[in-house]
């Protein structure tokens, strides 16, 4: 077999009804793939890459499976929607159950699953409002609510939703600080879901929820956060310790205060009791003295020799007192008639009598009770 040239052979049968001009491109391609070897044997060359030039829309990557063929009678599974085209134009959507198609004219173009789909959002980097770079990934849950829009409204719904989730996440994190991002994941998830639903309304897709799985700050930020937490805990421990010391001091002072109050109350009651006791003692002593004087006076008045006994007692007291003058003082004042004891006793009795008369004289404003017999 010789080497193939770039034009078809002249001995091609004319009975095929194919002109040489139509066979020239195909023959040229074959001549580039096959050529003669050193010994005249054909050798195969690598074929050039084939480029897909078809503009036919491809189903999403998740649904890139073999589409059902038209066998006139078809059974649509539950939670699926089949998009039927008739002569290249949208005709209807088959619901679960029995369906009858027209051969050649009807074609199953798209198969949409109506189940909830969990889509993993790849890890990406985002910068917060306080210029901290974070690595985040998440999971997106969505569902097809309109098979027509999901088939004709977008080329690859899965890829589009993933990209929309990533861009929305970057935009939302750019408006939040690091602390807010870590503390308010629920708010961030709700904002992402709202933004995705707003953009995917024309795609026939509704985002049910979005969950951030992991947030990875830089190592230096993590170390700084750990240091901040340690410092905050040390601060709380010191505050609690100081509060304990303060409360202990307050309790000690309160105890001392109560102790001093109780001690003063005890001293007060002690002094009051002492004063009451002294007063009662004075009253008792005065009553006893009064009763003694009253009995002496009664004895003096009722007995026959009472006055003489009083005179004798006064004389004895006078003599004893006069005798002790020299013992208690170096200066002694003696009456002129010290040798006359009788005159001194008479003077003493006169003094006694004058005192008795002055007591018997009534004082204005004071009533003297009559003596009892």
Q: What are the defining features of this structure?
A:
alpha+beta; 373 residues; 10 strands; 19% strand; rod-shaped
Helix percent reads 40-55%
Q: Give the count of helical stretches.
A: 8
Strand content: 15-25%
Calculate Rg over CA atoms.
66 Å
Descriptive overview:
About 50% of the residues lie in helices and about 20% in strands. It is an alpha+beta fold and about 375 residues long. α3 crosses α5, α6 crosses α7 and α7 (about 305-330) crosses α8 (about 340-360). The model is unreliable at about 1-10, about 10-25, about 30-40 and about 40-60 (pLDDT under 50). Among the domains are: about 1-45, no CATH class; about 60-115; about 115-215, Tetrahydropterin Synthase, Chain A; about 305-360, no CATH class.
List the helices and strands and how they pair.
Blueprint (H helix, E strand, L loop, with lengths): L19 H14 E3 L5 E3 L28 E4 L3 E7 L2 E6 L2 E4 L5 E8 L3 E11 L5 E12 L2 H6 L4 H18 L3 H6 L1 H15 L5 E12 L2 H84 L3 H23 L12 H20 L13
Antiparallel strand pairs: 1-2, 3-6, 4-5, 4-7, 8-9, 9-10
